[in-house]
Amino acid sequence: MPPLRRVLVALSVAAVVLGLALGGGALWLYSDAKVSTAGTEFTRELAVPPLAPSTVRSDGTRVFDLTMQAGHKEFRAGAKTPTWGFNGDHLGPTLRAKRGEKVQVLVSNTLDEASTVHWHGMHLPARMDGGPHQMVAPGASWAPHWTVDQPAATLWYHPHPHGRTERHVQRGLAGMFLLDDERSAKLPLPRRYGIDDLPVVVQDVTFDGVHFDHGRKLMATSGFLGDRTMVNGTLAPYKVVKDELVRLRLLNASTARVYDFGFTDDRRFSLIGTDGGLTEQPVAMDRVQLSPGERAEIVVRMQPGERAVLRSFPQKNYGDFWQTRFNGGDDTFDVLELRAADTLRPSPELPAALGQPELPDGSDSVRSRFFGLQMSGINGKAMATDRIDETVTRGTSEIWTVRNQDGVPHNFHVHDVQFRVLEVDGREPPPELRGAKDTVFVPGGRTVKLALRFTGPADPDTPYMYHCHLLYHEDGGMMGQFVVVEEGGQAGKVRTPHSHTGH
Ligand SMILES: [Cu+2]
User: Fold this and answer.
1) Comparing 49-185 with 197-345, is the CATH topology the same?
2) Topology of domain 365-500, per CATH?
3) Model confidence over 259-313: pLDDT tens digits?
4) In what order do the strands lie in the sheet with 269-274?
5) Which residues does the UniProt record annotate as the domain Plastocyanin-like (predicted)?
């Protein structure tokens, strides 16, 4: 063989070997990326976060205390995991207030680093929002107050320090904030907290010895993906239920994982609420998909003595097969087992009419804006705390078009408002996106059109956030800021984030 040909042959052999090795490696990565906990044995009784005690001041203000603290929790017998929590070792109590009530939360930070508490889904003044501009230093406290002025809903609270939100939530700082109103109080819905009305805070987790392992898997561009799930901080949880109808307030409090909830026997359930409150009617469904930060209230019918397993199923609308596999779209999790007692208390039928979402329909929109989502930033700009990106006029409604531009799974959360999803890829949205929403999934290839109304109050100097709620992305800069101003007003100057040192 002439020397040149010999070199060429050797090179092609090397190329084929390298190709096979790379292909084999990719195949191994691909098959290794899929996670399933199907068939889990449910061995621990579901913890239900306590309702937070409150006091009512003479002016009618309902006052709560929330203390951010470090602790340890025994998720598994004999293994004490270092954690953070509100008023306890892990997660936080459920706050509950009525529409029209004045509320105040006395937030104390006993951690060794600064954090914030953001009221996710709440309509409130920007200064009270708990975003990156309302930092609470170690040892300091903060006392936001506002009047609840929105329909009954399942909201939640969690830290929002710029660049560190993922870590703070993963360590356990999250809790629910339930709102009631006159209308919801009269509806014959399951409403006994912890009995037939259950908070279901779903998080994925991986342990490394006693510690949480927050490492991101190779190829997982969406962020941290755990290898198992817990509900309200309980691994492999079961709950004994004694009523025919059980209401589950599902909250995806995971930092990156998207769930598609249903039951292992594919039974149908009724969707009764979305992020911002009750839907107009119950909608029969067998799956409801929730990306990080989203909520859904569902009601499931139980038969005496049976067991029903809530599962998160593999998902189809995650972008391409690569993104789907490496970002958890092919994963399966057995999340919670409901164990029905042998005799069940009868529940009234669900009412045909539920909530009255207060949402713009786009017809009175005064302005359209576009938001292109990429990991590097929104509309090509990484978050800057001293830059106001958008200025909206108090009392007006707008249409925002949000497009996934890089194929990585994202979602879009807007502070202060509940919006209507007008269109998903030019079509009418599915039932779970027809109610009041503050967060919407925007996987690869998707474009959503939203109608939002900004009712204020105006504050040209204090921005609200809009961002991807996959916290690894948010921390990396997928966030922007908007201010609400009076008509003809201009954005002011953002003051540098400072820590509150007392109240
Ligand atoms: Cu994202």
Assistant:
1) yes
2) Immunoglobulin-like (2.60.40)
3) 999 999 999 999 999 999 999 999 999 999 999 999 999 999 999 999 999 999 9
4) 234-235, 228-231, 197-205, 245-252, 295-301, 269-274, 277-285
5) 69-183, 223-303, 374-486
